[in-house]
Each structure stands twice: as C-alpha cells, then as structure tokens.
Design a protein that fits this description.
Strand content: 5-15%
Distance between the termini: 25 Å
Number of domains: 2
Number of strands: 7
Helix content: 40-55%
Order of helices and strands: EHHEHHHHEEHEHEEHHHHHHHH
CATH topology of the largest domain: H-NOX domain
Number of helices: 16
CATH class of the largest domain: Alpha Beta
Radius of gyration: 22 Å
Shape: globular
Structural class: alpha+beta
Strand order of the largest sheet: 3-4-7-5-6
Length: about 350
C-alpha cells in the first residue's frame, strides 16, 4: 500500500507520461523492469510510449517507491534520474520556458506550469539579499521517497539553469537539505560536485540572486527546435494535415512564433515572391493572415488552457506587442477571453 497522501501532494492530478517513461528508463539501467517499476500504478508499459497517455502524481510516487525499494543502496538515484530530464522534454511548455527573456521569467514560467512537469513537490522562488533560493516543499510525500524527490528536483533545476544561461560552471550553487544525515554529502561527492549542506531550515537550491535578471542568450537550438516541433504537432492534431503550401507557411510561422511576422519575410524564407505565395495559398482556399492567426491562437490557447500561464506572458510568447490586441483576436477566435480560459484551467487544477 502506498504511503503517499494525495490530498497533500500539491500536484496530485494527471500529467503527461514523460516523467514516468524517464523513470522507467533509469530503472532499466539498474536491471529493474518497467513492469516492476509500475507495479501498483494504473499505468501500463504501453502507456509510456503513448504521447496522449497521462498518469497521476500518486502513480508517479508509487513508481518511485518501487524503484527506491529495489535499489536501496544506490547513491544519488534521484540525481541520476534528474540529469536525463531536459526542458525540451515538455514540448510546448518547454517552449514557454526556453523563450523566456530572463532567468527569473523562466523560473516563474516553470513554476506556473509545474503541474505539467516533472515536479512532485511544490517549488517556489525566494530571495534574501544577494541569495536566491528555489525552495521545495515535501509536505505529503512519503519518507521513503523524499531524498529521491529532492535529488531529482535539484538536479533538474541545476541542469535547466545551466542550459538556459549556457554557462557550464556553477561552483557558487549549493543544495541545502533539512535531512540531518552527516554522511550524505561525502557519499554524494562521487556523484555530483554540487556542495550539499545538511540540517537546514528548508530544502532548497541556492545561487546568487544577481543571475536572476540576466538576459538569456538564444536557447540551445536543438532544444528549441524540439519544442517548436511539438507546437507544430499540436497544430496538426487540432486542424489535421494541410495542403503543401499552407503547411510550409504554418511551419515557418511557428519557427518564429514569438516575433511579429509579415508575408514578404515568410515568402523569402520559402524562396518565392510574395505574389506567388498569396496565389498559391488562395488556390488552397486560405490566406497568410488566416494561417498566421490560427497558429498564434492555437498555441496561445494551449498555453492558457493546459499550462495556465498568465495572459501577458502568453501574448508576448505568440508575438503580440500589446496584450489588448492579443485579447481582441483571442475573443474573436474562441468566443472567450484569455482570462476565462486560464481560469477554467485553474479550476481544474485546484
């Protein structure tokens, strides 16, 4: 019987299969089968490769319990699991993080969409003088898996920050744990160079607050491409396959969704004149403006409805300089305000 209390775990609702699939991959490296790892959950092995499949946080806790019981002496099990999680693994929500203007905005966005990510514990950002902390609340999480959870959360947080800032050295980062095990830091030294301090008031990853407002460089192209491909897959799922020129235009629009775009620029990317592109789209029964609005609004709706991002954030990420203009177009498209769609998401997640 699982020891988790789903009334107290903040993210006790459904989430994509990504994190469980990665967990089972980690188990396989230790000779533990996916079937064994998933024992007692409502998830099947076939679900792991189904992009539409979802599982509950309670299922994930049970799978982690199985893994920890079967590998009790494996030092740094959570760190090993966290290292293989990339921001792009979360598709359109990873896109929202990767396109943030600063690290602070990226962290705030990650917290906003946490219910659709790897997170099990509540995450919050705290600042005190020159120090910033990502704090993790383990309330309601069974004692057996707490160390795994904090290790995984910490490893992923470090990796995300390093990927976002594209800086390999974070020697001034420190993990702080409420656990008072005095031998743990020395045992973990073989697993990670990250300093670990025990017996602290909160579980947290600490780093200089000065990096929060650094402008992020262009995201890793491979990661961003993966996320944009997920956006394209979302649009195809919603509207079906398009005729060839319409598809080319929509793909080109999505590749630069965060910027205002004009047909002449898109035509240039497709190596045709603007006049030719207009004619070919007309022959397919559509127009550049129609395709452009559909792409922007579909991605915006997903960010509001599934991730619960705020209206200003979504407006900016789909290329609108003014939220008011975005809101008008959104209402015309869906018959609801962006705020209403976001509120519906919040009600479901509560």
């Amino acid at each position: 019987m699982s020891g988790c209390d789903d009334r107290m775990i903040v993210h006790a609702q459904t989430r994509p299969s990504t994190s469980l699939r990665l967990l089972c991959d980690q188990a396989a490296k230790l000779g533990i089968s996916a079937e064994t790892c998933l024992e007692g959950t409502a998830v099947t092995v076939a679900d792991l490769d189904d992009p539409s499949a979802e599982h509950s946080t309670v299922d994930e806790i049970r799978a982690i319990e199985n893994l920890v019981r079967l590998a009790p002496d494996h030092v740094g099990l959570g760190f090993a699991a966290g290292r293989v999680i990339h921001v792009h693994a979360f598709g359109i929500w990873g896109f929202a993080v990767l396109t943030s203007p600063t690290l602070r905005a990226a962290i705030e966005t990650a917290i906003d969409y946490a219910k659709l990510s790897f997170l099990v514990a509540e995450m919050s950002l705290a600042e005190e003088g020159e120090e910033a902390r990502l704090e993790f609340d383990l309330t309601g999480i069974p004692a057996l898996v707490r160390r795994f959870v904090i290790e995984r959360h910490t490893a992923v947080a470090v990796k995300f920050v390093r990927d976002l800032l594209q800086q390999p050295d974070f020697s001034d980062f420190e993990a702080r744990l409420t656990d008072d095990d005095p031998d743990y830091p020395a045992r973990m030294a073989a697993v990670t160079p990250l300093p670990i301090r025990m017996g602290q008031p909160v579980n947290a990853l600490c780093f200089p607050s000065r990096i929060l407002d650094l402008a992020l460089p262009k995201s890793d192209p491979a990661s961003l491409k993966f996320c944009l491909d997920q956006c394209k897959a979302l649009l195809e799922k919603q509207t079906g396959a398009l005729p060839p020129w319409s598809q080319k235009v929509r793909d080109a629009v999505v590749d630069n969704i965060g910027s205002e775009q004009q047909i002449d620029v898109i035509a240039g990317k497709l190596a045709v004149t603007e006049r030719t592109l207009r004619r070919r789209l007309s022959d397919e029964g559509t127009s550049f403006r129609k395709l452009y609005i559909e792409a922007r609004m579909s991605i915006a709706h997903e960010l509001l409805a599934s991730a619960g991002l705020n209206v200003e954030t979504v407006s900016w990420r789909v290329g609108y300089a003014e939220p008011a203009s975005f809101t008008r177009t959104f209402i015309k498209t869906f018959g609801k305000t962006p705020g209403e769609v976001r509120k519906a998401h919040s009600s479901r997640a509560a």
